[in-house]
Amino acid sequence: MQTEQLKQEIIQYAKQIGIDKIGFASADVFGELKERLRRQQELNYQSGFEKGTLEERTEPKRLLPEAQSIISIAVAYPSRMKNAPKSTKEERRGLFARASWGIDYHVALRERLEKLSRFIQERVPDVVNKVMVDTGELSDRAVAERAGIGFSGKNTSIITPEFGSFVYLGEMITNIPFVPDDPLEDSCGECRKCMDACPTGALVGEGGQLNAQRCIAFLTQTKDFLPDEFRTKIGNRIYGCDTCQQVCPRNKGIDFHIHPEFEPEHEVAKPKLKPMLHISNREFKEKFGYISGSWRGKKPLQRNALIALGHYKDRTAIHEMVDVMRNDARPVIRGTAAWSLGKIGTEEAFEAIQDAMLKEKDEQVLYEMSKGLEFQQDAGVK
Q1: Catalytic residues
Q2: Which of 6, 164, 317, 376 lies 20 to 30 A from 65 at CA?
């Protein structure tokens, strides 16, 4: 079969299986990306979640020796929650980023790519394909940019003409030599709204460079104590951050509800905070296990829920937070509860911290408790 004919058949089939954009790129070395990643390493901008060596992340033939092309796909997800529940003084809510609404996109895109791979195999029996979604070595963004899916914005997202940056990305390395598509022109221009709006200044340089160590999306996924400077920045975010996408002019008016599996379930995407503090492993898996935001387990999300309750100064949560501070087995959760109780700043909260300090043995938790008590002066409580 002629390669161009096969390419057109793949494009048509992709539409049938829920792929919103598809592009074809060469499997050449990503030279510019390699230099950017090297610089990222030197500056300690990496998150630590990256997979593979510098070479594996930029040289497709390291992953598939027969590599000739890379097929890039994009699937759109919604940017607005219909009939979103409101936070109330009695029941404060947290928020999962839009990319974690609905079922885990890693699963959804992998299924689409595997269908696409089987479709190609029926036509080219000796084809060799390798499928990746986010957790692979290659940069989904670099592949999508080269394949003409969209341009790489200053917010480090791929921005498509049709769906803005609200798209999931995945790719397939193949030994078929497809004619590559043309990349799109960078259209950010002088705009730097995302850089100016980033709560922690994580978008650095001239744009397109991310200091993951300062990115709220990354910080919400860490398992240790959150550094002090970021605690007031995450607000009620439980997982991820959408600020740089929300302010992007290219995303204005963009909201696609094409795929039912990505529609948010209200009590999952915008959960009540207090019930999260005592959720069991089984309950957590049943409620949150199907979304991508659950991949790090419940501990980071519970820590973030405690910070959010402190952010809200939610007095209705004091009793439950005191219980967590006294009885939870995990130092990070006990200590964060103490700090957040200090943020709430009532006499009851400060007394509870002081009482808990008498029995606490962990040095880090004691340090967090002392920081919680430092809010006493600001609160005007003696």
Answers
A1: 134
A2: 6
For residue 173, give both structure tokens. Answer: 């390395």
Q: Which among 203, 196, 200 has a CA at the least distance from the CA of 233? A: 200
Q: How many CA atoms lie within 13 A of 147 on its CB side?
A: 27
| Residues 97-137: tens digit of each pLDDT | 999 999 999 999 999 999 999 999 999 999 999 999 988 88
Q: Which residue has the tokens 């699937």?
A: 75
- Helices and strands in the chain: count of H runs, count of E runs: 18, 10
Distance from C-alpha of 310 to C-alpha of 306, rounded to nearest angstrom: 6
| Residues 302 and 228 grouped into a single domain | no
**What percentage of the chain reaches a pLDDT higher than 70?**
98
As a 3-state breakdown, the chain gives helix, strand, coil percent values, each rounded to 5, of: 45, 10, 40
Q: Does 337 share its domain with 188?
A: no
d(CA 257, CA 80): 9
Partners of 232 in the β-ladder? none
Boundary of a domain, candidates 237, 254, 270: 270
The parent domain of residue 360 ranges over 273-382
pLDDT digits (tens, 9 = 90+) for 266-325: 999 999 999 999 999 999 999 999 999 999 999 999 999 999 999 999 999 999 999 999
Q: 293 near 95, Cβ under 8 Å?
A: no
| Full-model pTM | 0.93
Residue 183 and residue 235 in one domain: yes
